[in-house]
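hiii, so i know i said id send this last week but things got crazy w the move. better late than never?? heres the sequnce for the chain we talked about at the cafe, plus the structure i predicted for it. fair warning i was half asleep when i ran it
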Amino acid sequence: MTARLEPWQQTLCRQPEQVAGWLEQYGSPLNVLDPSPMARNANELREAAKAADVDLRIFFARKANKALALVDKALDLGLGIDVASEQELHQTLLRGAKACDIMVTAAVKPQALMDASVACGATVVIDNEDELELLIASADRAARSVPVALRIAPRLSEGRPPTRFGFDADEVMDVLDRHRLSGGATPATIVGVHFHVHGYDVADRVAALQQSLGMIDALRAAGHRPTFVDIGGGIAMSYLDDGGEWTAFWREHRAALLGKRTPLTFQGHGLGLLAHAGEIFGEPNVYPAYQRPTRATWLAQILGATLSATTVAGALRARGLQLRCEPGRSLVDGCGLTAARVEFRKHRHDGTWLIGVAMNRTQCRSTAEDFLLDPLLLRPDRASSPAPSRPTGAIEGYLVGAYCVERELLTWRRMRFPGGVEIGDIVVFPNTAGYMMHILESPSHQIPLARNLIVSDEAAPVLDAIDR
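okay and structure toks below
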């Protein structure tokens, strides 16, 4: 699966000595980030909204990547910031964000986060009645009102499991009444409606928007003055340009699970699929690395979808509503890669090659089973190497990491190395800025977390402020 590379990534991969020097200086693995593609990604969404005559406000979902340079870039672009913890909130404020720039969407909101949100005046997305009670208590103690977006749990098509996020729409008005939240001056001012939908299906977003607009109408009828609808994150993007590669992999992987060809994965790992009695069950538990539509086209299809006698865009305009969203992965598409040094090659007695890399699996892994992009192999000049490694010749094998467990695989797929692998070679995982670098990273075994190096055309490389 051939990853789409940004020009800056292509240039860097043609400079293996440069990357090797950084690994020597900062350690392996190393996350390398260039925030500049964020501008293009945001502009694609803005242009789609502009074409539909919709007022769009984008908030960068910080949880996708912890680098503060990305927060700085988002603010420079006029984006807001979506924060998921108290630390993210404080860091964002220190980078110069104003209250109106911040949405607090954390899945769990302890007292300290509520107090900090009230203190700065950020908009808090409320998920349940317990959160609402906690927020009202914080606002009462501070003697100030806090802007609130109510997260609702939309009901989707038959067979779709209910989301864990949000109020059932039928209970919202009763909850507000119980807490005496009218449209007047109260501890919590209802400013919008929010939802989070799993997956990337356009029809699901349209259904959720229809229910959200109904909630807006009910809130306004009760005296509240909400001004926006927020579709959350999950804005579709694609890591691959060639859909044929994606289709071919899954065809061959299914054949392998049925015993019709050699396995493509370590010990026949199913990546979410299971073979039984000659049939395949389950669904791939991976990000859809190739998909269409994406970003601007995806948003345009949502805004142009029919809703009663108008379109989604028309319904938003008729109500004078702003559309908000919190992309993470799709906003940092093209902004990063992860590089790590090869430390050993081992030819196991069963013929399997294992390539040991100085990193662990949490340093390039999300909640999915695998990251289905082909890594790149860079080979720095060996002229100055004190102990050149024995050549392997062309081999196939698996990238293994530093944790002391049998299934410490950096990628489940078997990799082909036509030029062999040498100690000191560099494995590059492309396009890792969205979740892959940080969401699961762990310093187990006392292995340090990867550092984050910021590169650009305008300035010398520098460690991100998160590492300083």
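btw The longest strand covers residues 336-347. thought thatd interest u
miss u guys!!
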